[in-house]
Amino acid sequence: MNKTYKLYFIPGSQDLYGEACLKQVAADCQEMVRFLNDKLQDVVTVELLPTVETSKICVENMKRVMNDDDCVGVITWMHTFSPAKMWIKGLRRLGKPLLHLHTQANEKLPYGSIDMDFINLNQAAHGDREYGYILARLGIPHEVVAGFYKHERVIAKIRQFAQVAKAISDSQNMRIATFGNNMRDVAVTDGNRLSCEIQYGWEVKYWGIGEIAALAEQATDSQIHEKMQEYESKYTMATDRLDAVREQAKYEVALERFMEENEISAFTDTFQDLFGLRQLPGLAVQNLMDKGIGFGPEGDYKISAFSAVLMKMAEGRNGATGFIEDYTYDLTEGQELELASHMLEVPPSFAAAKPEIQVCPLGIGGKEDPARLVFDGITGQGIQVTLVDMGGHFRIICADIELVKQPEPMPNLPVARIMYRHKPNFAIGTAAWCYAGGAHHSVASTALTRADIAMFARLTGTELITIGDDTTEADLQKFFTK
């Protein structure tokens, strides 16, 4: 059953201008909510709460917001002047994303008939500044969208907020399974798991990979057969080593059972801890990522969780979103490209054509040849995003990239092959990533934009560094902080 997502719409006013004014405020807000529901019905429902005229009403509204599990955030708007002291107690109870909609019920001024009654009723320019001050004073992370609420640009920004709020809501209830620890001696995949849970709500739990091995042995012939049929319907079977493919089917059956029983949204594994498994999970992981399950290799729980969040944020949009790893470069001067991939686990959403299932040797891990999906990558404008632990805080680094077609075939490389161009150019783009402490594990997306990531960072209180066409060589040293 699909979850219902809801935004509460909370207007602000006061009783200074009389009952007739408050009735008009209520009527205008009902019309606005009807309009927003019509425009956003595929993403979220919008429900109107009582107009805040007193501190008590504000507190009651925020109690309702926080006690409603379907509610992922709030939209607030000051129709008239709404003295901000009466918002303080309520806002201090709010722990969900907040959108401050800076708008009016009317698009144009009635120049010929405008009088003081009209100004008193329609004074968002006055009331929203009072409200904006108290949000800044309280230090509450929030998003401001300014403009007439019926304009497409404004609707698009509200839609974006709803998608980010949904992702944050799911994120705050997310459980991540780490099968084994992070790869030995690797720094960037490590970090403070307790801090992750405090800031983002991500519960990072450890289990031994032997539990998956045991569940895999319990997979029935019918379960394995059903999984094999799924593979054959989605991918081209380019191998006659079906036993190896069946082994991956067993792993996926086991992982799905484990995640359902333990309410897991994302997971990690590592080639250094495969006790009880005959192969490193490859095809199984790729197929699970195609279903929205977050993943990070070598114990990278941050990217595992972050990929699940960003895939949720991208739902309903065109394009691909998922885990990727920086690998190697073509350094032809003036035409520099990066080949991004991983030894196995790149999601098939990035495939330019139907992926092939191949079984090939793997030089690390000391196990049997694993089955995996092999494909060339899609093209288009995109972003590369990573989340790193800087010790005292988390940092998101978001770079604009262009995914491109590989210049020549790579017949001897049996992995997914994603190629992209760094912006504004290779020298500045990659140097900025290194200065900022960007990880080699990241999430790539042709569905999301830098603006989506910036909104997520604002609403979660995360430091953000962005890299793109507007980045200059003079900016590079600014990215290095200690």
What is the strand and helix layout of this fold?
Blueprint: E1 6-12, H1 19-40, E2 45-48, H2 55-67, E3 71-78, H3 88-91, E4 98-102, H4 116-121, H5 124-138, E5 143-146, H6 152-171, E6 175-179, H7 193-200, E7 203-207, H8 210-217, H9 221-234, E8 236-237, H10 242-262, E9 266-268, H11 283-289, E10 294-296, H12 301-313, E11 321-330, E12 337-341, E13 356-359, E14 371-374, E15 380-389, E16 394-404, E17 418-422, H13 426-435, E18 441-445, H14 450-460, E19 463-467
Parallel strand pairs: 1-2, 1-3, 3-4, 4-5, 6-7, 6-9, 8-13, 9-10, 16-19
Antiparallel strand pairs: 11-12, 11-18, 12-17, 13-14, 15-16, 15-18, 16-17
Helix pairs in contact: 6-12, 6-14, 8-10, 9-10, 10-11
Task: Describe this entry's structure for a reader.
The chain is α/β, with parallel strands linked by helices. It contains 14 helices and 19 strands. It has helices at residues 19-40, 55-67, 88-91, 116-121, 124-138, 152-171, 193-200, 210-217, 221-234, 242-262, 283-289, 301-313, 426-435, 450-460; strands at residues 6-12, 45-48, 71-78, 98-102, 143-146, 175-179, 203-207, 236-237, 266-268, 294-296, 321-330, 337-341, 356-359, 371-374, 380-389, 394-404, 418-422, 441-445, 463-467. The chain has a 6-stranded antiparallel barrel. Helix 9 (221-234) packs across helix 10 and helix 10 packs across helix 11 (283-289). The longest helix is centred in the first third of the chain and has 22 residues, at 19-40. The chain is elongated and about 80 Å long. It starts with 5 loop residues before the first strand and ends in a 15-residue tail after the last strand.
